[in-house]
Amino acid sequence: MLTRIDHIGIACHDLDATVAFYRATYGFEVFHTEVNEEQGVREAMLKINDTSDGGSTYLQLLEPVREDSTVAKWLAKNGEGVHHIAFGTGDVDADAADIRERGVRVLYDEPRRGSMGSRITFLHPKDCHGVLTELVTSAAVESPEH
Amino acid sequence: MLTRIDHIGIACHDLDATVAFYRATYGFEVFHTEVNEEQGVREAMLKINDTSDGGSTYLQLLEPVREDSTVAKWLAKNGEGVHHIAFGTGDVDADAADIRERGVRVLYDEPRRGSMGSRITFLHPKDCHGVLTELVTSAAVESPEH
Q1: Is residue B127 within a helix (H) or strand (E), and if so which, with residue range?
Q2: Chain B: which residues have CB within 8 Å of chain A?
Q3: pLDDT on residue B144
Q4: Domains in chain B: boundaries
Q5: Which of B20, B34, B36, B113 shows the greatest Cβ crowding within 10 Å of its Cβ?
Q6: pLDDT for A26-53, tens place per residue?
Q7: What are the helix and strand counts (H, E) for chain B?
Q8: Among B119, A66, A32, which residue's Cα sits nearest to residue A75?
Q9: What is the distance between the alpha carbons of residues B40 and A143, in angstroms, rounded to a whole number?
Q10: Contacts of B63 (CB under 8 A, 6+ apart)
């Protein structure tokens, strides 16, 4: 069951400049940074608020680290902007299976590693009215509801 | 001060079909619908979670109601997808003034009417690394922090 907006993924050409923009304009601070080699991105997570399911909502700023990454290709086509949205769930495996049953293409056979040790999968944007949609189960499940 | 992700605005060609997709795929229900004549859209708000500042985060599904609306033009260029993101604040006037001081173009001289009686303004996407960014103050300010 999807219980929160976990993050909004924003593709950018220059992560440091984009982090600086969000800090200078809104006062948002970096909560976490990492390189995800599998996804081919360097990323910064800015925590915006906590959520009623015991999780949080972040902006995820994404800079490609290699030209053949999906984010690099997306940027070349679209320019900087919102790349995907992500819903948080206590059980990404169960939700991905349910959603696949409903006829939506799930892009991974098994969830992969996402930010901060989370487990993630993606839904095909053409099956989601144009929105690349991610499902996330956090590494630290904090809520008793989960 | 921006204290939450208030909503993600998603442009679609057919609001009823898109609402049906979100209900059938994820179980999300419509919290509110309205027509905003000034913005030229028919919209549905799907509440996803409550937030730590006393507000909530929604998906806002937007269908243009006239061909000269900004959302209609955006859809013609981009197809369906994420149109904008919105941050919630207790004082959209003060935040818009601060952000304008920092050199970001604010699109309205004064905030206008948004969903559910909120007051909103937008920041120019070219000044925000490609992200059309909205600031929202809800009509019902529920949190003692505000």
Answers
A1: none
A2: 1-5, 8, 10, 12, 18, 21, 24-28, 48-53, 57, 79-82, 85, 87, 99, 102, 104, 125, 128-131
A3: 42
A4: 2-137
A5: B36
A6: 999 999 999 999 999 999 999 999 999 9
A7: 3, 8
A8: A66
A9: 40
A10: B11, B12, B13, B14, B15, B18, B41, B42, B43, B71
Residue B35 backbone dihedrals phi, psi, to 5 degrees = -105, 130
Residue positions counted in chain A: 146
Task: Indicate yes or no: CB of B82 within 8 angstroms of CB of A85.
Answer: yes
Superfamily classification of domain B2-137: 2,3-Dihydroxybiphenyl 1,2-Dioxygenase, domain 1 (3.10.180.10)
Phi, psi of B105 (to 5 degrees): -70, 125
Strands B56-64 and B81-89, bridge-based pairing: unpaired
Which ipTM did the prediction report? 0.94
